[in-house]
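**Folding the chain**
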Amino acid sequence: MAQLHYGPARVPSRESPEKAVALLQERGYTACEIDFEGKFWMDYPWAETFGELAREASIVLSVHAPIAGFMGHAERGKKLNMAVGMLDHSAGIAKTAGAEVVVFHPGFLLGRERDAAIDSVVEQLGELRERLEKKDRAVPFGVEVMGRVRELGTAEDVFAISARTGWVRPVIDFAHLHAVTDGGFTEASRFEEILEGADAVIPPEAPFHIHFSDIAYANRNETKHLPYGEGTLRVEPLGLALRNFDRPATVITESPNEPSNQAIREELYAAVGTRSASRASSSSASGSRSRARKKSA
């Protein structure tokens, strides 16, 4: 496969961009998702410095928009306007930081047939795109596969939205897929099947964007992320599947603790057959930390 980046779903420090990047390097990460699920906590100067330092350290960034920032509202009004504003601001931060994608959720069926709900998502995304283009912040977006078996956000839904928009990519959450299939993702072939679907709708040279963690579920719905090894989802089959694609990949770990993040990293890189993130980044870590200290002085 092409280049693999791996890192956490949260910025490890909000104290300063310099400390955040230093911690990412110390932990051997080459990716990081800026965590706005609950609220916006990063301003534009913070994002600009964070992006500059991350690029120097060869760390790729992404942004996760607030949970309420979804498209496909059944009614127009305050909630839709708020969601558009959230996604607009997420795009502004993403552009400032140089992030490769803004991740968002696809919303809900809200009593509609699935095709009608997807039509609504695509229509509102088109309106959002026009707004972003006028502001020169039309960055790529990524729509996430969800963990609710009877709701909007299946892999097929996400692929359809991506195919119809052209600028929205699938974000493949394998923990969610494992949940909605009642633990069905244990073999590399299952991972490869989903990656093939994503590969067909992602622009050439753009990376797969993947979320991963061990997962608890009930009645084919996710309940919570688990420490790695407590559930039945393993990352080795994902690594083996990625080897069959000539496309880069960014894998974001959503595990609840750092030992799990590290265990997944080592197993993933071993399966892919490349150097682990810690060894790959060690040669540049000291130099980048030095530059970070100079910027903070």
Notes: The chain has a mean pLDDT of 93. DSSP finds ten helices and ten strands in the chain. The chain has one domain: 4-296. The beta strands are 4-8, 31-35, 60-64, 102-104, 141-144, 168-173, 208-212, 214-218, 221-226, 249-253.
